[in-house]
Known about the structure:
A hairpin with a 2-residue loop joins strand 13 and strand 14. Strands 6-5-12-13-14-11-15 form a seven-stranded mixed β-sheet, covered by helices on one side. The chain has a five-stranded mixed β-barrel with strand order 1-2-8-9-10. Helix 1 packs parallel to helix 6 (283-303) and helix 8 (338-347) packs antiparallel against helix 10. The model has no long low-confidence stretch (mean pLDDT 92). It has three domains: 3-40 and 91-165 and 253-319, FAD/NAD(P)-binding domain (3-Layer(bba) Sandwich), CATH 3.50.50; 63-84 and 167-252, D-Amino Acid Oxidase, subunit A, domain 2 (D-Amino Acid Oxidase, Chain A, domain 2), CATH 3.30.9; 325-386, no CATH class. It has helices at residues 13-24, 47-52, 91-105, 153-158, 225-235, 283-303, 311-334, 338-347, 351-363, 371-385, and strands at residues 3-9, 29-33, 44-45, 60-64, 66-70, 76-80, 86-89, 108-120, 123-130, 136-146, 167-176, 188-192, 203-208, 211-218, 243-252, 265-267. The chain is an alpha/beta fold. Bound molecules: flavin-adenine dinucleotide. Flavin-adenine dinucleotide binds next to helix 1, strand 2, strand 8, strand 11 and strand 15.
Amino acid sequence: MDRFDVVVVGGGPAGAVAAQDLAEAGKRVALLDRDGRIKPCGGAIPPRLIADFAIPDEQLVARITTARMISPTKRRVDIPIENGFVGMVDREHFDAYLRDRAAAAGAVRLTGTFQAIERDGAGTHVVFRDKASGERRRLTTHLVIGADGARSNVAKAEVPGGDRIPYVIAYHEIIEAPAPTERYDPDRCDVIYDGAISPDFYGWVFPHGGQASVGMGTQHTGVDLKGATAALRAASGLADCRTIRKEGAPIPLKPLDRWDNGRDVVLAGDAAGVVAPSSGEGIYYAMVGGRVAATAALASLASGRASDLRLARRLFMKEHKGVFRVLGAMQDAYYKSDMRRERFVSLCHDVDVQKLTFEAYMNKKLVHARPLAHLKIGVKNLLHLAGIVAPTRV
Ligand SMILES: Cc1cc2nc3c(=O)[nH]c(=O)nc-3n(C[C@H](O)[C@H](O)[C@H](O)COP(=O)(O)OP(=O)(O)OC[C@H]3O[C@@H](n4cnc5c(N)ncnc54)[C@H](O)[C@@H]3O)c2cc1C
């Protein structure tokens, strides 16, 4: 009963997708999650995710049609989201839905806390503490997918560098959404680039229907996260809204150079350090990570070669390396000082910049169609970084 082809540790978006794909491919798969904590998350997902992973309408608690960028001097640039919307999900229900979907496909759900991977003559074993009985249990398996999120215990124990992934700490408060006003629009995301809120990342107000997520992130240890969020709520007119939850969690900053241990473990999602630079977007990339980990596991199970586990990272990077590189360069260039942030928001006035960044976000593609627009953006970018042009006045 406790023998599997694959044990997936962690039932967030990465693990749930991996387990579903493996079960649909006819493999005997266990999905282990400790359960009991809602993942702290802004919950913004792009149309590409909704389409690729068939997310039903009921999971969307809001549809965002405008992104408002706010600069340190409170300039605002409203970017209309053309041909679609950014979806908002509530992670309490979204993650449970994905886990149920994996179980419906045939994955065996187990609730408990992962403790260790052990190996002996009989094979590889995943050891966990069962939540209901409190007992220590051992599952025997050919392969393990480590999808246990940021600061993954599987990554720390099994994959070189898994214990040294750099992080932004993100903190947010879930509040009761106010009635719509000029300052709060339930169909608009606000993204705040202001060193007083975050010296190296950004702050946000993301509507979620009856609730909203208000928060910020930073890599600096000395920043008062709660103080910065209180300042953001005050500046957004949300200070008096009832607070439902306060919570924080790390967001990884850099994908690991290797996602497998060359033997029987492959990582997916935050566990592999995979979150988009600049935006901190991780849900879509976690789900893709789960999918490529499942593909690599299937290849390895079929061939008997451990080296096939490397396929996971290779497949992921083939498709997403370009977008990660552009977003990384943007973060390096513009998140360093208020002067740079001011220029970044100013650059967002440009319709071509809006199209380029939104295409990269919405559909996960760099647009190649308009070389002249790219050239113009490149030149503007340089002029802004060199301080040769002044930020646009609004
Ligand atoms: C404050 C904040 C806001 C964010 N906002 C956004 C956003 O708006 N949009 C976006 O795309 N991304 C956002 N992100 C990033 C996104 O939440 C993550 O990238 C994403 O959840 C990663 O999915 P995952 O499946 O890899 O890991 P997780 O979602 O962290 O799932 C890991 C799972 O593993 C389980 N687990 C962990 N340890 C163990 C253990 N020892 N035993 C058993 N189970 C275990 C946990 O219970 C959890 O279910 C945000 C992150 C933070 C912190």
